Amino acid sequence: MGLTWLALMVLVGATLPAVVRGLLPPLPRRNTGISPQAVVVVGAGRRRQNGQFSLTTRGLRRLQLAASLANEHGLPLLVSGGINQAPQADGEPTEAALMAEQVRRRWPALEVIEEGQSRNTWQNAVNSAELLAARGVDEIILVSDRTHLPRALLCFQSQGVLAQAAWQKRLPKQAWRPSAGALSMVPEIWYEWLALVWYHLRYL
Fold it and tell me: Where is the DUF218 domain (predicted)?
């Protein structure tokens, strides 16, 4: 009976935005005085249906915010994302190509830079930093999910890129009202904590 009540309390807690917010990995110390010269968005994977590739819902959410910020501030937009698996079939679009296609449909005047070789967050940072450096850019707005941003920021900072974090809020304002959205973030949060440990051991 005790374990049942404990499990129930844990489950209820995982639906409360205030509790879930406290579980989020902390963002690195914020860099002040940044004057962004570009917006960078890292992909969230592709999906395939009926032989056609498209962006995931999370990826579309990131891209919409990034393109809006780039358009608002008159900055170029770098879209970063390769493929989920190897090898890549002939004619198979990279995630960056899918993102660029979406942006050019809605914001045809926006300058889009494609980075389509990366397969993880570390490669997102390394490959994007090279493209940015070629343009003399080392200060950016970095767009991803709040759960993923701590790892992404650390990777980009390790490449000498100063970044401001931007994300769309997914947790409701009602901190103590149960939310399915809050519950859906819990697996992402635990994954990111594990990924942060792995990245510190391997890359950072």
Answer: 37-195
- Are the beta carbons of 36 and 169 closer than 8 angstroms? no
99 neighbors 77 (Cβ within 8 angstroms)? no
- Classify residue 189 as exposed, middle or buried by CB count within 10 Å of its CB (0-12, 13-18, 19+): middle
What pTM, to 2 d.p., does this model score? 0.89
Closest CA to 118 of 129, 134, 104: 129
CATH number of the domain residue 107 falls in: 3.40.50.620
SS (H, E, C) 40-84: EEECCCEEEECCEEEECHHHHHHHHHHHHHHHHHCCCEEEECCCC
Which residues constitute the domain of residue 35? 2-202
180: tokens are 């399915």
Total domains, the chain: 1
